[in-house]
Amino acid sequence: MSSLLRLATAGSVDDGKSTLVGRLLYDTKSVLADQLDAVTRASVDKGLSTPDLSLLVDGLRSEREQGITIDVAYRYFATPKRSFVLADTPGHVQYTRNTVTGASTAQLAVLLVDARKGVIEQTRRHAAVLALLGVPQLVLAVNKIDLVDYDEATFTVIAKEFASHAETLGYPQGSVLAIPVSALEGDNVATRSERTPWYSGPSLLEHLEDVPVAPDPHDSALRFPVQYVIRPRTPEYPDYRGYAGQIAAGTVRPGDEIVVLPQGIRSRVERIDTADGPLEEAGAGTSVTLLLADDIDISRGDLIAAADAPPRITDEITGTLCWLSSKPLKAGARVLVKHGARTVQALAGELHARFDEQALSSVDAPATLELNDIGLVTLRLAEELGVDDYGVSPRTGAFLVIDPKDGDTLAAGLVGERFS
Amino acid sequence: MTTLEPATDAAQDNLAALESEAIHIFREVAGEFDRPVILFSGGKDSTLLLHLAIKAFWPAPVPFPLLHVDTGHNFDEVIEFRDRVVERHGLRLVVAKVQDWIDDGRLEERADGMRNPLQTTPLLDTISENKFDAVFGGGRRDEERARAKERIFSLRNAFGQWEPRRQRPELWNLYNGRHRPGEQVRVFPLSNWTEADVWNYIAREKVELPSIYYAHQREVYLRDGMLLAEGPWGGSRPGEEVRELTVRYRTVGDGSCTGAIESTATTVEDVIAEVSASRLTERGATRADDRMSEAAMEDRKREGYF
């Protein structure tokens, strides 16, 4: 089992995400005495009789003033079974882009709903974003179950409605676990609650400890974006020329046949170098330096790929964009596309469709994409890129859309015609 | 965040993943920026940062200089360590001395003698004089709740200020380093490391640290619950009894506000065992500058501090 689980929270504002995260930290004894003292003092100042656990995580002055989460925070906690990196994301519609930020690296998402309100617009929006990003595991935490008197029927209605929504989004039947919780009281967060005798499943923490994590895509073909060329030109290494990067997908071994893209030149891996010595094999996620058998002109931004299974080379990407900026996208806009270690100029072509995450339908040929819109767009590139579909190889199927004027990140891009 | 256990196999995998991520970040900055610099204080986090930079570019030299903002209130052992490391790896060191800014009137000494809060101006001035466009820092998100909000690539405006509500989304491992002239990007390769990861990695890699991280005899006095040492920053006041104790430091900062803890831990393994039993965070235990207000760290970051 993997020792590390990366997870994200999502859900609407005021549904208790920060309190849940505070509770997880508190119940896993990840809060030390001085941190708890600070929160207890602040809670007393606010006139509260018990520590407000959300203050453990709402780190910004304006968050504490307003009692809401504005920006993603990353939290670290551990149990004897597993370590966790948790992206705690805001619920406000205006901050949906931060949910995308938190979820882009998550292996599991905990989506919260308020038991009194059930599945609402923002729940459906977030579930759609999580499905789009391919977050493999979902947990629906039906929070504030104490405020509906631990009522089983209320929980069942919400769990069923959400399960059918998730299935429409592509989550297989039975793949979403719903848990009745009270973040405030601690019910079913770290330990199972006696106040929900009708619930036979695990507590949230038990589930997080035991849930299998999808393995790294080791069996997929090699993808290695060249980040940096290492040329020491020192007396000791006068002719050393290594291509440094992090393996995006697949596995590499000395002797492997490779192709350098977009040039299309073929060669063979001679050595896999690291500062700790050469490796016999390296897999996805590992930062290494490759030395090739032939002297080829390769620079940052090139892609080294398995010769027998290269990605497609294209000067046009059709893909889904999560529009994260308040500056709308129109056809004809000049943008930059960052893919792997390469940034190229691009022109927005056709806006094919906008996805309506409430109706789970799409609107044809929208005039613009606005903040938080999800749309299918074609981008024409000034230079060729080697791309895969996001569903096949997320690391080489993902890209950023950047504003060339001020450098702002405008959109998260996923290669492939998902909503066509 | 808290429990420091001896690293298991699974934890070693976790360290390998963190190392690969940090190396990826170093190479990304080397590829995208013109004039990066590594902020280096000689403390454990910046020493680890340098260790990872050396691994990222091996067998080529580290393509960045180091920058030390010298408060003038440093521990001798740390300055000696700093100079030795620079010498050994053939690095270039830029030193911004707070004293120079005080001497020519650009800064005024504080009544309480603390110089940590005075570092921001020399830092920002030196960044702009040298036209540094990317500045590596050893900050970790587990240190403090405002730091937990920090991106790995953190855009600062031309005044070096952090605007937490206007941070760029950070997606997958695609870091956006675009910036306009005058703006800079602060880069935090250790963002996802915890104090436990740092110590376990130091043990694994046998990284040398300044001697003050390990138990030694020192004359100290108690003030505001902290064991402070005498130094160029001043010393004990009447009524504060100076005693020789066996102590070590959990963080290295300005001597005026960094306290020692009583400890007999003389090896990395001893330190790991000791920290895992502690009920205080490293900053909560020994850093007075974080105690000044509930939002002390956020306020300093907004001003341009790390």
UniProtKB/TrEMBL annotation, chain A:
GO terms for molecular function: ATP binding; GTP binding; GTPase activity; sulfate adenylyltransferase (ATP) activity. Keywords: ATP-binding, GTP-binding, Nucleotide-binding, Nucleotidyltransferase, Transferase. Pfam families: GTP-eEF1A_C, GTP_EFTU. It comes from the Bacteria. Residues 2-216 form the Tr-type G domain. GO terms for biological process: sulfur compound metabolic process. Its EC number is 2.7.7.4. InterPro entries: CysN_GTP-bd (IPR041757), CysN_II (IPR044138), CysN_NoDQ_III (IPR044139), G_TR_CS (IPR031157), GTP-eEF1A_C (IPR054696), P-loop_NTPase (IPR027417), SO4_adenylTrfase_lsu (IPR011779), T_Tr_GTP-bd_dom (IPR000795). This is sulfate adenylyltransferase. It comes from Amycolatopsis mongoliensis.
From TrEMBL, chain B:
It holds the Pfam family PAPS_reduct. The keyword Membrane does not apply. Residues 36-259 form the Phosphoadenosine phosphosulphate reductase domain. Residues 283-306 are annotated as: Disordered. Gene3D superfamilies: HUPs. The keyword ATP-binding applies. Keywords: ATP-binding, Nucleotide-binding, Nucleotidyltransferase, Transferase. Its EC number is 2.7.7.4. GO terms for molecular function: ATP binding; sulfate adenylyltransferase (ATP) activity. GO terms for biological process: sulfate assimilation. Belongs to the PAPS reductase family. CysD subfamily. PANTHER family: SULFATE ADENYLYLTRANSFERASE SUBUNIT 2 (PTHR43196). This is Sulfate adenylyltransferase subunit 2. It comes from Amycolatopsis mongoliensis.
